[in-house]
Known about the structure:
Oligomer: single chain
Number of domains: 1
CATH topology: Na+/H+ antiporter like fold
Order of helices and strands: HHHHHHHHHHHHHH
CATH architecture: Up-down Bundle
Amino acid sequence: xxxxxxxxxxxxxxxxxxxxxxxxxxxxxxxxxxxxxxxxxxxxxxxxxxxxxxxxxxxxxxxxxxxxxxxxxxxxxxxxxxxxxxxxxxxxxxxxxxxxxxxxxxxxxxxxxxxxxxxxxxxxxxxxxxxxxxxxxxxxxxxxxxxxxxxxxxxxxxxxxxxxxxxxxxxxxxxxxxxxxxxxxxxxxxxxxxxxxxxxxxxxxxxxxxxxxxxxxxxxxxxxxxxxxxxxxxxxxxxxxxxxxxxxxxxxxxxxxxxxxxxxxxxxxxxxxxxxxxxxxxxxxxxxxxxxxxxxxxxxxxxxxxxxxxxxxx
Length: 314
């Protein structure tokens, strides 16, 4: 486990210390530019390489299904805690909304993929890819935007692009579609796949470095509502996915296999960095967004071994 977590931790630490070592660094500008390179170059290459070489199976599709159900259940629980209980009574709507978003969707590729590789081998990257494309992206840019605008910012007179328009202008989506089409049509070109895999290797290191730039290290003070949201995201959600998987794949009919345990790993990942993007775009509480990303990332190093010890990942 240390072999997986140590390089990720070192990359996050490098991002954290970068502005302190180089006084002329502009973290906001650097973060924006690196995110663009990931979105337009590195991540699309990963999606293309995986989609062009991975056949569709029922087991593979069970991952986004299970994680999606867990996401919706966690969202309902967080809504009850933050909007209908004393926990969120003194919080503003922008704060509550960003906590719901941060507690629903995880960093399922950049942190999930290395964990999946540790458990199941390098081919397990496909679980993270298909979960991102079939569950995370559609739900974030539909339900996530609805939460941000209707429960958070309440900007009723502001018009935003439709979810379909956003999705169809994202380079990763087109890369996945092209890869999937080449695989289905038998047109996969091995040298091109190898080149895409080579370029895509930079995705996780760059994003982990950016994560270190993003976390507000000096302001990581514990707050009850943030720790409660982290508890739901890191422990309650994977337990829910594990229970749902055991119900849908009972021993007498089949049994939980690699894909179902991969769904538990995906559910256990810390809050996604897109939480910050949504907070900034829809005028939510950006400070709290940074805190939920930071705390869940730090606590993930403790929560994942707990889930392993409970036997929910094999």
